[in-house]
Amino acid sequence: MKKITTRILTLLVMVSVCTSPVLAASMPSAENTAKTEPAPASVTSAVDEFKSLSRNERKSRIKEAKKLMKEYKADKRAGRAEETDQVLLAILAILLPPLAVYLKEGEVNSKFWISIILTLLFWIPGVIFALLVVFDAI
Asked: Where does it localize (predicted)?
């Protein structure tokens, strides 16, 4: 129950931050920082704003947040949303090559199995293969 409540609260804060013109103007621009978290003050003000809404408006915002999450997941499955950080994947490719390949590909496919075989037989070729996959050379 606590997990569901936390997810719903996160979705609500996300929708409130995205739909509030005051908070949207105070957020850093996408060109400056692509992956930043909002300031704690803006999150608390968004939560307070959400709590002051009527019940119908809250339901519509929750519905909108669920719709946005569904679109995001569909984009991620289709490969249109890039969430992984290349530097972290490169470090992971050196330490655990098959895991880096799996995180980059998002599924267990032939590249993943090749990475496991190369890593188990010979460590260095497994690392090289994982780095090639992470940097989209293969």
From this structure: Membrane
Ramachandran region, residue 136 (left: φ > 0; alpha: ψ -120 to 50; beta: rest): left
pTM recorded for the entire structure:
0.43
Same domain, yes or no: 15 and 54: yes
Q: Are the C-beta atoms of residues 11 and 69 closer than 8 Å to each other?
A: yes
State how far the Cα of 132 lies from the Cα of 110, in Å rounded to an integer: 14
> Buried (b) or exposed (e) across 118-129, using 16+ Cβ within 10 A?
bbeeeeeebbeb
User: How do the pLDDT tens digits run along the chain, 138 residues long?
Assistant: 455 555 555 555 555 544 444 444 444 444 444 456 788 888 888 888 888 989 899 899 899 989 988 888 887 777 665 655 788 899 999 999 999 999 988 889 999 999 999 999 989 999 999 999 999 888
7 and 74 housed in the same domain? yes
Structural domain boundaries enclosing 31: 2-78
